[in-house]
Amino acid sequence: MGGIDKADPKRTIEAVKKTTDILEALHEMEGATLTELAESLDYSKSSLHSYLVTLEEQEFVTTKGYLYRPSYRFITMAESLRRTHYNIYKYGRESAKQLAEETGEFVQIMVEEHGVGIHIFAVSGKKGMFAAKYPVGRPCPLNCNAAGKAILAHLPEEKLEQILFQNELEMITENTITDPDELLDELETIRKTDVAFSTEEAVSGMRGVASPVLDSSGEIMGAINISGSISHFDDERFQETLPKKVVEFSNIIEVNAMNERGYDNT
User: Fold this and answer.
1) Would you say residue 10 has pLDDT above 70?
2) What is d(CA 207, CA 205) in angstroms, rounded to the nearest whole number?
3) Is 263 a residue whose pLDDT tops 50?
4) DSSP per-residue string spanning 102-130
5) Partners of residue 226 on adjacent β-strands
6) How far apart are CA 220 and CA 29, in angstroms?
7) Is 85 exposed, middle or buried (0-12, 13-18, 19+ CB in 10 A)?
């Protein structure tokens, strides 16, 4: 009998790849006509139209006039995903809101998937500044921001080495750390202090302070991050006040998660 060829881990289905390419392009283009999409993807209009009709029948794509865009189903799926698959979101979003209220700054929760960071929640305090470069759901290199470095510091060694050494680390700004050995030194400090810092490593004019959030077995769930402009983050606040706050709320999330699952560490 025929079956899946388990010997080939790279085995892919071209139709699935084309479908995801179409959906990603519609998302990035914020909607597109058939002609615009065909030109962007270099697909024939006839082939592309068949995919779009099928996606519309399955309610993954909707149309308005000649414009195609992803449908409401992605909102439903994304919210369900956050609530059911990310414990740090489940146990941390209220803490993130409180942290934003107390500091007045922009607070994010990040997780790691496929070797990149994904912000799954964000909330702003009264004076928070939002950097639109990496909004909720958009992949972000882990080496260019405080939350990403907090996560890297607690990844299993094999996965960490794969991220740092398999491909060149991406340089986002002139301050981004792209030397794996230099980054490893910083990760060692993060493990000791539970605090990660970044200054203009992802976005010019912005600073970040983050702390890792671990589960009861010591595995990384993600990181909670405070970010803002350099003018808001003077050296004393950046190095003393905000690190204490972010570690405090990281610990609160960890305790909430442990107590909800039946671990009482009092």
Assistant:
1) no
2) 7
3) no
4) HH-SEEEEEEEETTEEEEEEEEE-TT---
5) 107, 209
6) 34
7) exposed
Cite the beta strand spans of the chain per DSSP E. 61-64, 67-70, 106-113, 116-124, 139-140, 196-199, 206-214, 220-229
* Residue 205 scores a pLDDT above 60: yes
Phi, psi values for residue 90, rounded to 5°: -60, -45
Task: Give the model's confidence band at 5: pLDDT under 50 very low, under 70 low, under 90 confident, else very high.
Answer: very low
By residue count, the chain amounts to: 266
Q: Residue 190 phi/psi, 5° resolution?
A: -60, -40
State the residue for tokens 């405070």: 226
Q: Which among 140, 139, 147 is positioned nearest to 173, based on CA atoms?
A: 140
| Closest listed residue to residue 205, CA positions, set 103, 130, 112, 107 | 130
Residue 126 region by backbone torsions, left for phi larger than 0, else alpha for psi between -120 and 50, else beta = alpha
Residue with tokens 């740090």: 88
Paired tokens of 169 = 């680390």
Give the global pTM. 0.75
List of residues 6+ apart from 142 with CB closer than 8 A: 112, 115, 116, 117, 148, 149, 151, 152, 163
Query: CA nearest 220: which of 159, 176, 166?
Result: 159
Domains contained in the chain, CATH given: 14-71 (1.10.10.10), 78-260 (3.30.450.40)
